[in-house]
Amino acid sequence: MRRPFLKLCLAVALAAAGGLAAGQEQRPFVLGIAPHTSARVILEMYQPLRRQLETSLQQPVEVQTAPDFTEFARRALNQEYDIAVTTGHQARLFQLDAGYLPLLTYVADFKAVALVDKNGPVKSPADLKGSSVLGLSPSSLVTLWGQQWMKKQNLGDVPVRYVSAADSVSLQVLAGEAAAGFTSLANFQKLPAEQRIRLRILAQSEPMVGRVYMLNKRWTKERKAVDKALAGFAASDDGKAYFAQNKLDGYRPLKQRELEAMDPYVAETRQVLGGK
């Protein structure tokens, strides 16, 4: 009579262990995407990559973003993302302050631009004096670049108002609610044609390191598996379609000291976040 009882105890123990393991496996791998456009568009854009990671890593994968770049940085520094995809200055911040590991970036150049209404009153940078402009939050790269550009133009104190998505920048500029708006060249190129043809690029930056994939340090031992998953996505039909649709031209390794070049922007970002 003791043997069936022992079998029952063993079965219960295995079931409990299996339930614990299953519970652990259900923790999603979180792919955090900086809010370079609306949350709805981001969730749609990154579904093919989510599916690839889920298949390759054999665990649930969840795409998340944040209300703005500043909150995204806070969440990443709080270790809430397994991969964080963000512009170079935040990538450098995450590397220095939270131990994230740089993986790769996109082949296409990243540039920030200042957009104005093609038929509006702003014909030169000097025309921005006494007006207001739009940015994507105090800690976004395009906003930081725009503020530095305005200082170089000796425009004085031009107020910067922040919006949550790049598509809102163009709409508000065209509605006359701001004299100019700062966004990325890629986001400008993705605007609907009827909006794009009504806008003019007043100024644009030199190429900077754009969106960088940063791996949370807790995945250090599995880095090769993550690299393989990203390479698989790049080689897939879904990946090629994603690169073509977003004019990104594929993935590439980071160049030597490419992230270090972002250090001046990192210092400004820390100030925004309340750091030292």
From TrEMBL:
Name the UniProt record assigns to this protein: Phosphate/phosphite/phosphonate ABC transporter substrate-binding protein
SUPFAM superfamilies found in the cross-reference section: Periplasmic binding protein-like II
Span of the signal peptide: 1-21
Lineage: Bacteria, Pseudomonadati, Pseudomonadota, Betaproteobacteria, Rhodocyclales
Annotated Gene3D superfamilies: Periplasmic binding protein-like II (3.40.190.10)
Domain of life: Bacteria
Alphabetized UniProt keyword annotations: Signal
Keyword Ribonucleoprotein (UniProt): no
Organism from which the protein derives: Dechloromonas hankyongensis
UniProt keyword annotation of Glycoprotein present: no
